[in-house]
């Protein structure tokens, strides 16, 4: 980043109070560096929800929300989703470059060699109720990984950070599949080294010791694309959570677990599950106007799930790709007349013509169509957010690594505008 100019803070009489540096990045709005503001003026900035605050500088992902552009390390999401694979994207996000053929082979082998989890880890599952939400289990089990890999927990060692990244990319799918098997009371399936990353995950999800699972290439490609589309999204709530947790020096497994916990919320990754529940609740095209009216009613807490985004004020490019994937998957499975998909298309059409949604620039986000694809792939609704976590783990770990590698990194410690009681004394009769 380079300093281009300064920004002058003035008082109510337009008298200058202080000059603050303004930096520009390679793309996107300039930033006013307010680090010296408190020292120079005695005031903080106030920005709950971080609408106008860049919490860090990052080289990883760029979003232009007005134009609906998403770039991973400079490459448009459309090109990566159409011509890349998830593991190529992992390499890109972690190391800044797409792998050569040899690098990709080595990377895939490395990941494959780490897909098994420590056998002792399976005991953790037994402590959970069978009906526990998979995200609750994920929080517990991924967090527990730090108890198993003491050999590589030095966050100041690049070798340890890389090894932790590989372990997380490799083991999260195994844990996600174990969550599913545990909830349906079936034995865990070990990974199979002959299969690709996504084939292996689908087999661990759907095969049983009595029945093998032959992955369908169209469905494998669809899930690979879902993972690509969820791989990173700059400083979203869960990634910012990972960075904040990591800023204290916490180990990578603990930090990724913090990200998983944050992702679970319905306003973030929990939305894909909420979308499918909403579509099932709407039930029929004739009911759509009733739900649109509820979404617009300020006295009703109902929101159109899968609509709206903090950054995108245009069509989320990932939603477009996801909608195309819906067509491919439903075609492959002979589900041309899928009721939920038809309902979603109609809901989108009606919402996008409604002045409320037009005015507020509310468009479908990535979660609007992902649930329909996952549902068609046979993934239970309560597993949707865990699949999102599987794709996003690479983004979290790339951001965590970028932050730890930054020599200027300091613990994240926001300030506040205090609005509570001023100093007061305990009553004299109080013990
Ligand atoms: N349905 C109805 N109204 C909405 C919706 C929606 N889905 N989203 C936003 N609005 C309205 C709000 O009521 C608000 O109206 P107001 O200005 O009259 O008060 C206005 O649009 C702005 O909304 P905010 O909540 O202030 O916007 P914010 O940037 O804080 O929130 C969010 C973005 C959380 C994604 C929101 O749009 C939402 O709750 N969407 C539904 C949940 C969802 O799909 N989440 C997934 C996000 S993508 C992801 O995490 C992968």
Structure keywords:
mainly alpha; three-stranded antiparallel β-sheet; 6 strands; globular; binds acetyl coenzyme *A; 431 residues
What would you say this structure looks like, in words?
This protein is mainly alpha-helical. The chain is 49% helix and 7% strand. It is built from 18 helices and six strands. Strands 1-2-3 form a three-stranded antiparallel sheet. A three-stranded antiparallel sheet has the order 4-5-6. The model has no long low-confidence stretch (mean pLDDT 95). Acetyl coenzyme *A binds at residues 267-269, 271, 295, 303-310, 360, 362, 365-367. Acetyl coenzyme *A is lined by residues 267-269, 271, 295, 303-310, 360, 362, 365-367.
- Straight-line distance between termini: 58 Å
Order of helices and strands: EEEHEEEHHHHHHHHHHHHHHHHH
- Helix % is 40-55%
Listed once per kind, the bound small molecules are: acetyl coenzyme *A
Backbone CA Rg: 23 Å
> What's the rounded overall pLDDT mean?
95
Query: So what's the oligomer here?
Result: single chain
Largest sheet: 3 strands, antiparallel
Low-confidence stretches: none
Helical element count? 18
* Approximate strand percentage: 5-15%
Structural class: mainly alpha
